[in-house]
Amino acid sequence: MADIATAGPLAGLKVVEMGQLIAGPFCAKTLADFGAEVVKIEPPGSGDPLRNWRLLQDGTSVWWQVQSRNKRSIAIDLRSADGQDLARKLIAEADVLIENFRPGTLEAWGMGWDTLQALNPGLVMLRISGYGQTGPYRDLPGFGVIGEAMGGLRHLTAEPGRVPVRVGVSIGDTLAALHGALGVLMALYHRKVHGGAGQVIDVALHEAVFNCMESLLPEYDAFGAVREAAGSALPGIAPSNAYKCSDGYVLIAGNGDSIFRRLMEAIGRPDLATAADLQSNAGRVARVGEIDAAIGAWTASRSIAEVMDLLGAAKVPAGKVYTARDIAEDPHYRARDMVLTQRTRDGHDIAVPGICPKLSATPGGLRTAAPRLGEDTDAVLREAGLTEQQIALLREKGVVA
Q: Annotated catalytic sites, by residue?
C-alpha cells in the first residue's frame, strides 16, 4: 500500500456516493482527489446522466472524466428491494454517505437516517438538496440554477436594467458541494474527537449560495438598501471594473489606497493620484464614474498585453479575461500543475483541472480514470462478502450490472 503522502490525507476513508449530476458527485470527487475510497452507485443501463452531458468523446462526456476520476462505479437498481439491501450493506461499512436526491427518496427506499444510523452508528451522512431536509419548500424540485436565484446571486449577475444571466458554470451546485465537503470533514473530526458518533449534514443549494453573498442582507436590514446588478463593477468599491482595450477586456482592481495612486500615475493622471478626496475608498466611490472613464480612456488605445505589462510594472492588480485556450496555454497554470493530463478508460489523453487546494505534505492526485458504468460492481460486491454465485444471481435478476 502507498504511504500517506502518496495516497492522500483521506486514504482509507470509505465513501458511498448516491445521487447524480453535479452537487453530490462534485463533493465526492473532492474527497476522492485527496485519497478517499469512493464507490459511486449508478442505475443499471443509463448510469449517471452526466455521462452524456455536453461534448462526448467515444460516447462519453469529457466532463464525466473530471467529475468521476478516482472513483469506482457499481451499478445497482435502488428501486428494487434486493438493490436496497445491497446499498445498506455497503453503507454499513462506510464512513460517509453522500446523496443528493429529493428529500424523502431514501426514506422511501428504507434508507432514512434512523435506519442507517442503527446499522452504522459512526456514519456521516451528507444530504444535498434544493431547499434542505426541512422547511415549507423541502419537497419542491430544485436545481443549482434555482438555488442561485433564491440565494440572491442571479439578481446581481447582469448589466443594470438587463436580464439576469447565469455565471456560465453550475456555480450553485459547486458551492453546495464544497460546503458539503467542509461539513463532512468537520463531522469526521467531531466523530474522532468526541466519541465516534456520526451525524447528518444538511446542505440546501440556495443556502450555500446565500452564504457567499457577503453584505447583501445586513445592508438591507440596516439601511433598506437592495443591492442591484452592476455589470462588471463592484458596487461600493472603487475602482474595480472591466475596461476595454483595443483587443478585448482587462479587469483592473485599483481599490487599495496606495494601489490607486500607483494606478493613476501609470495612466498619466497624477491629478487624480494626489486628489485629497480620492485617498480613501469613500471618496473614490463618490467619483467612480470619473475614475472609470479615465482608466477606460487609457486602456482603449492599448492592447491587453501592453496594459498588463504597464500595470504589472506599477504593481497594480490586473487580469486578462481568460478563455479555455488561455488557460490551457498559460505557463503559470502548467507550473502549478493545474493543467494535468489524464488517460481515459478508452485510451485518450485529455487535459483536466489539477488538484485544489495544494497540501504540502499530503497532496491530492489523479490515481484512476473515471470508470465505465458498473465497471467495479463485481469487485465491490466481493469485498462486501458476496459469493460469485450470489453476484451472478443478482445480475440475472437485473439488480446489478
A: 173
